[in-house]
Design brief:
β6 and β7 form a beta hairpin. The chain has a seven-stranded antiparallel beta sheet with strand order 5-4-8-11-12-7-6. The chain has helices at 26-33, 80-85, 99-104, and strands spanning 8-10, 16-18, 38-39, 41-47, 50-56, 60-63, 68-74, 88-93, 119-121, 127-129, 134-146, 149-161, 173-175, 178-180. By secondary structure, the protein is mainly beta. It contains three helices and 14 strands.
Length: 187
């Protein structure tokens, strides 16, 4: 429960939302979230119509035992129906050298897999992007509709990690509408 902030009403998704959100607009919320940096992933899956993929900056580790991860996808995404029908996905942690892939997979769906030199297919059917430092194959454990997005929870069944002790590429970050590379701070 959110506490005594006026009358509360259940939304279409079952969330209890107070009547008074203190004047918060979607634009204000979006602008504030632009100032929170996020790692960049590309989620791929096999579908009856062919490979599907999209950029996701909402990736999170949820649990070690069992190994669970999550990401969000908008209900308006061209990939939502394929995700709902899928049993598994591959989540790619992009390196700074792959900002072109982040851009490619955030644009028109028809163009995402046109360059066959960028990807191959696992024996389980999911597309895998070449040169990705780390990727996880996950079986979809649960899809939960929340607000205007779906929260996808996956059980990690395979980890591909080529970073070794010293990664060859820094992770790709998204901050304030642009891609960035992290810089280490002296401690």
């Amino acid at each position: 429960m959110l506490g005594p902030v006026g009358d509360v009403q259940p939304s279409e998704t079952g969330l209890v939302v107070p009547d008074d959100l203190s004047g918060i607009t979607a634009e204000q919320y979006r602008a504030s979230m632009r100032h929170y940096p996020a790692g960049v992933t590309v989620v791929t899956l096999g579908a009856e119509s062919g490979p599907v993929g999209f950029t996701a900056t909402s990736f999170a580790s949820l649990s070690l035992e069992p190994p669970l991860v999550s990401f969000n996808i908008a209900h308006t995404s061209s990939s939502i129906d394929a995700l709902r029908a899928a049993d598994s996905v591959v989540i790619h942690f992009l390196g700074e050298h792959q900002h072109h892939l982040a851009h490619r997979f955030s644009r028109t769906a028809a163009d995402r897999f046109t360059d066959r030199s960028l990807w191959t297919t696992l024996d389980t059917g999911e597309p895998v992007l070449h040169g990705t430092p780390i990727w996880l194959r996950t079986t979809l454990h649960k899809l939960i509709d929340l607000g205007d997005h779906t929260l996808a929870v996956g059980l990690v069944t395979r980890v591909h990690d080529q970073t070794e002790e010293s990664p060859s590429a820094a992770p790709l970050l998204y901050y304030n509408g642009k891609y960035h590379r992290p810089t280490a701070l002296d401690t």
